Amino acid sequence: MSSSTEPELTTTDRGSARSAIANAIVRLHAEHFGRGPTRARAHINEDFVLVVLEDVFTTAERTLVAAGRSDQVQATRTAFADVMRDRFSAAVEVACGRRVRAYFSQTHIEPEMAVELFVLEPE
């Protein structure tokens, strides 16, 4: 139990929020990239939400990586994250009931992973 007077998510609420966030991020990737990651896990902390995604690349992106053009894949993924910032943040805000203060996204080539980090506003 926290010494703070701020409300906390219960274990059940936290599990539901994690699932809702992971599913929303996968759905948004699938809708806008044509396919979503095959694995996604959201982690909720007092101050942030971290979503770890695996098996994220499209066939075209894998072709670019194989041809030594991973810089193009990362540039496209960065641009995508910038465009999707509000949609991704809205999914986190709805699930957690808190505003997103900052959003960071990073794609890793090998192993094929991405992370979405949402820093939450203080309650």
Can you walk me through this structure?
- It contains three helices and four strands.
- The protein is an alpha+beta fold and 123 residues long.
- The protein has one domain.
- The two termini are 16 Å apart.
- 47% of the residues lie in helices and 24% in strands.
- The longest helix has 27 residues, at 70-96.
- It has helices at 11-33, 59-66, 70-96, and strands at 39-44, 48-54, 100-108, 113-120.
Topology, element by element:
Blueprint: H1 11-33, E1 39-44, E2 48-54, H2 59-66, H3 70-96, E3 100-108, E4 113-120
Antiparallel strand pairs: 1-2, 2-4, 3-4
Helix pairs in contact: 1-3, 2-3
Kindly list the characteristics that best describe this protein.
elongated, 123 residues, 47% helix, alpha+beta, four-stranded antiparallel β-sheet, 4 strands
Summarize the structure.
47% of the residues lie in helices and 24% in strands. With 123 residues, it is of the alpha+beta class.
- Encode the helix/strand succession as letters: HEEHHEE
Distance from first to last alpha carbon? 16 Å
The largest sheet has its strands arranged as 1-2-4-3
Q: What is the tally of beta strands? A: 4
* CA-atom Rg in angstroms: 15 Å
| Sheet having the most strands | 4 strands, antiparallel
- Structural category: alpha+beta
Q: Which parts are unreliable, with pLDDT below 50 for 5 consecutive residues or more?
A: 1-7
Overall domain count: 1
Count of alpha and pi helical runs = 3
Globally, the shape reads elongated
How much strand content do the residues show?
Answer: 15-25%
Mean pLDDT across residues: 91
* Share of helix, binned: 40-55%
